Amino acid sequence: MHANHQQKVFSDYNDAAAGGNAGLVAATGGARFATYSADEKANLPQDAVDASFGCGNPMAFALVRRGQTVLDLGCGAGIDLMLAADRVGATGQVIGVDQSDPMIERAWKNVRAAGHQNIDIRKGQIENLPVTDGSVDWVISNCVINLANDKQRVFAEIFRVLKPGGRMMVSDIVADDLPIWMRRSAMLTSACVAGAISEAEYIQRLSAAGLSRCEVVGRNHYEPSQLAAVVRDSLPAFLARSFVGCMVAGATEKLTGTISSKFWSARVHARKDEVFA
Ligand SMILES: C[S@@+](CC[C@H](N)C(=O)[O-])C[C@H]1O[C@@H](n2cnc3c(N)ncnc32)[C@H](O)[C@@H]1O
Asked: Phi, psi (5° rounding) for residue 93?
């Protein structure tokens, strides 16, 4: 990932949280690519749903129990924090970490509006978590690790903060064989595509960080029609012209179909083994 894209990720999500960046919000916001049920959405503050930029629903698949501690990497406006808080109950704790002040402010507003008492939101980077060693039962994350430049460091941090026996359930975009123009697109970086690694690399890097039972346990593939807005704004001029040509020729589906087959959302599980003396 280009170093200057990191700065753009930072400013894009600051802007989106503060009510700007209409392009990113229209393309990926509003829980468009997340997979929450209608019931879950109905029971959350509308603002948390509107400001949801996820690509899955990690809490739906994490076997979190009452009294446990859950850490959400890149918590955004707080949607998964609130789903986790309901699950762990009053005796449990939920911690969110995000690098964006406006996003954290919006998350606090949503968490307070929903009346949760067991959520703490901390400013920080997922590459250097403001969380004590061996202190959490679950790490969750929804469409964030693809945005990190140093993913190995993120996985090492996950290993560090998990209790022995603790587990990770992450929804994230993974990609295979992305064309170079997609890799170089700043817009597609912020939209969680250009920085994505393959499933095989995800698993290999998690294992290298010391985690076990690293596996992809689910996938969401996207229809070309779902992706039209995401790819249209990121095309370089020469491709945009042919894209428009494709539209005129009624072949839009073909182009977005080719692109859409190159990335998808994966649900990835890992565990920190207990150490027996
Ligand atoms: C695609 S949004 C997902 C937000 C949230 N998980 C959701 O489902 O709505 C990415 C979020 O991660 C944060 N973020 C990106 N890179 C980060 C990093 N390296 N450390 C901490 N937060 C980061 C952004 O500020 C933003 O809130």
From this structure: -140, 145
